[in-house]
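Narrative of activities, Objective 1.

The group set out to show that a structural description can be obtained from nothing but a protein's sequence at a throughput compatible with the screening campaign. Below is one input-output pair from the validation batch, recorded exactly as produced.
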Amino acid sequence: MRKIQMKKVREVLRLHIGMNLSSRKTHKAAGVPRTTAQEYIKRFKSSGLSIDEIDSMKDDLLQSKLFPDHKGLASTKKPLPDMLYIHNELKRRKQTKVTLMLLWEEYKAAYLDGYEYTQFRVLYKQYVNTLNPSMRQVHLGGEKVFVDYSGLTMPIFDLQTGEIFKSQIFVAVLGASGYTFAHASYSQKQEEFFHAHVLAYQYFGGTPHTVVSDNLKSAVITHANGEIIINEGYADLARHYHMAIEPARPYKPKDKPKAEQGVQGIQRYILARFRHRKFYSVDELNEAIGPLLEDYNHKIVKHLGQSRVQMFETLDKPHLNPLSANRYSYKEFKVARVNQDYHITLERCNYSVPYGYLKELVDVHYSAQSVNIYHNNTLIATHPRLRRIGDVSTLKEHMPPSHQWVHEKMNPDRLRNWAAAIGVNATAFVEARFASTEYEAQAFRPITAVLSLAKLHGKAELELALMFALEKQTLKTKSIKSILEKKLYLGKSANNIHALPDILNTHSNLRDAKEYR
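Output recorded for this entry:
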């Protein structure tokens, strides 16, 4: 049984209802089958909901409104037609007069439970589109921007270290006019890739409806066998600017000819002029690119008799969407599970959530300034971003009332009882750990990790290791593990070892001197 992904449902509705894209463009941009996209749209229209209501609705409530009868989608196992045979038969239709209808009737006669004619036609059309489309593309004004990186890089010389970096050249080209933007950066990593988009949209003075990107990891996680998984950060950038994402197929340059032409133009007109010049920073390189980019866009395109700027003013600019009032702020995304101390861990720092979400999966959206935590599409916690490893941000309203401890699976009394069953040093360690934190729940995980070592090393050895650790005033789990593995406690003085007779001398197989007389 397949679970409906409400994130996909929201994206389909945003593209079709919010951006007024056709169902064909919507299913491509959202990365879902066309029939699935149409089903989502149909259910939305019959639900009586508005797009604003959906944005503020929790996932489980939205699913109950749109899919009240959903119990999982059973996969159909109908026999697929032999598309190669059908295609070859249709190639000979001038001689044989065969039709697609006749081929479907033959298929249906062979497979009574096969596809009906409408779906049969869809499958054949999908097959034909995968062969080698080479028709000339016609781009509408303000419809698409094509983005790509130049294969040719520019060296940046570091005066302090003597290192040479290969700067990456980002190129964005509007489909109708060919109006071009170029920007250099140190890498193709997410943050710089997204920043280049922001600069491009500012340069254009607006945003087109769709961005056609290559399949670099900063944009697309997976694009194979008809499945498209867009990088969550890139999808967030598109949502901010009310755009759709349409990745080009892998190894199909004809899907993005404008980007290929734009990259080639920038390489020949701008980068080639720098072949004898040295740059010592990316900022210096971008300053040099700026004037030449203006010249490139004002240059007359011979076979059109107009410059790219002139075509931009008449074709693309009137149809661009206005820029958002707030400039896009780079964010990253992660799915985390709430720990037993009602905190989630992000880059080795901890952030609290309301106590009722213990063990739940949450979505974390974080930027350089803040961390926002969502559950079921609802914001449940906001924190300032922490930087120092081990830092903890705990809000008092997230803490449970003290009387609730006894009803929870993990609580301070349970840990104290566990430690008492191991020994006096384990008890001392637990109390020291509790005293070292502002809130007791923050010590649950490290205490559990240390006490669990008794299963691997035995209670006696853990007691010795904890005695050694307490004398050295170290409470870190990593340090205690190291003490156990290296048996550092064996180097203690004889007096200290004799302080634990109950631990060392109670084994049933030990013999004293009388046994050997």
